[in-house]
Amino acid sequence: MGHLQAGTVVTLEVVRNTDFGHFLSDGSNDVLLHKNEQNGDIQIGQKVEVFLFQDKQGRLTATMSLPEVRVGTYGWCKVVEVKNDLGVFIDIGTSKDILIHRDDLPKLKEVWPQIGGSLYCTLKTDKRGRLLGKLATENVMEELFVKADRNVLNKNVTGIVYRTLHSGTFIITEEGYRGFIHESQRDKEPRVGDRVTGRIIDVKVDGTVNVSLLKRGYETLDDDAEKIYTYLQSRGGSMPYSDKSAPEDIEKRFSMSKASFKRALGRLLKAGKVYQEEGWTYIKKD
Prior knowledge:
Layout: E1 9-18, E2 21-25, E3 30-34, E4 47-54, E5 60-63, E6 75-83, E7 87-91, E8 98-101, E9 118-125, E10 131-135, H1 138-141, E11 156-165, E12 168-173, E13 178-182, E14 195-203, E15 209-212, H2 217-234, E16 238-239, H3 247-254, H4 258-270, E17 274-277, E18 280-283
Parallel strand pairs: 3-5, 13-15
Antiparallel strand pairs: 1-2, 1-4, 2-3, 4-5, 6-7, 6-9, 7-8, 9-10, 11-12, 11-14, 12-13, 14-15, 16-18, 17-18
Family: Belongs to the CvfB family.
Domain S1 motif: 154-216
GO molecular function: nucleic acid binding
């Protein structure tokens, strides 16, 4: 279609009508604006601003719904479909979803975006002129970042994963901070596009932050206490473990440190759920 390119916004003139829409022209090339893609009534001779994309048959077509994401511009898009042999499809606000090819996704499919994931991306065309999506690079993401100060240390943050490495995960928080989650600070590796919530555990000189997805000590007390109490119930209400037990015995049985065990047990004692006697712990009967 000459210089008319999919993924761009152009102003074209309405040159003729059909039963299924209007043909628009730049003076040299015509493109169809289907009636389902127009907003309001338009007349021959009118100039209209449209976004160009390919229909399901691969033909260049136009829409008056102008997406934020275009060739050369970036925006956030939702993942609407995943095909393991092809890539993921994103919704850019037009009637046709756009493919991000597997070659532009992480090599590990385990961290590919899932349906509902949010991706910061742009559009591009391949050698055949087909419109494709493309994830933002680190250089592009840098334009979005704002620097954090030490006042945010230990604050809770929510962010979207935009990049993954073997050593950890990169997110952009709702505040715009560039966050890094080391592999030791997560229970499982999140996917690109996932929304995660954690806490800031360090603020770097350059204003970036380190984030942990692990629970704080006091937040894990309930889980650890529940684990101990469930074990007590499974043994009929008693167990040969107390705050005097050896650390290695506690680690072997409960997979927790002696300090964590004592804190959790202390919570159960304070709540009146258990009592200790001669190195044993018992469920307190009502």
